[in-house]
């Protein structure tokens, strides 16, 4: 009987992990736009199992370790650097789920998975044309901006999908003269 309960809680943890990853806008955009190649959807499904296994093999993870692991997976599998501020949030959700798993708290795991599913946002990224863009532009030398729109697929009580906030009025802007010929960007310290 005890082994059955443990397997049940483990299955709930796996389902909660997958719900959190499926609701993560950065991963949605990467999958929808094929950043992981033709097998992006399969990679996203694999990611759930990889994250679950990571927690089982490392029982006492710190938040920054989870963030680093997720960031590394996104970079390696989807060639994506997550800079929207969602990485710490998703990492915290996953860590909280694992604590519920360790305590055998089935109700809390079910509730977290349910809330995440209800608040799931469907995101869509579209490329924005840069000023002076022509069809003849060399793709290797162009910088592409993305606009992200979110819609709520679930029945969230507030009806709003949170969008990452900009860094503030002091956020750094990149000037054209800071982009050097080989595509690198020069970052200057504020004065």
Helix count from the secondary structure assignment: 6
- What is the arithmetic mean of pLDDT? 77
Largest sheet: 2 strands, antiparallel
Q: What strand line-up does the widest sheet have?
A: 1-2
| Terminal Cα span | 65 Å
Strand content: 5-15%
Parts with pLDDT < 50 across at least 5 consecutive residues: 153-172
The total count of strands amounts to 2
Q: Which shape, going by the Cα principal axes?
A: globular
Helix content: 40-55%
Structural class: mainly alpha
Q: Determine Rg (CA atoms, Å).
A: 20 Å
Task: Give helix and strand order, one letter per element, not per position.
Answer: HHHHHHEE
Mind explaining what this structure looks like?
The chain has 191 residues and is mainly alpha-helical. It is 49% helix and 8% strand. Strands 1-2 form a two-stranded antiparallel ribbon.
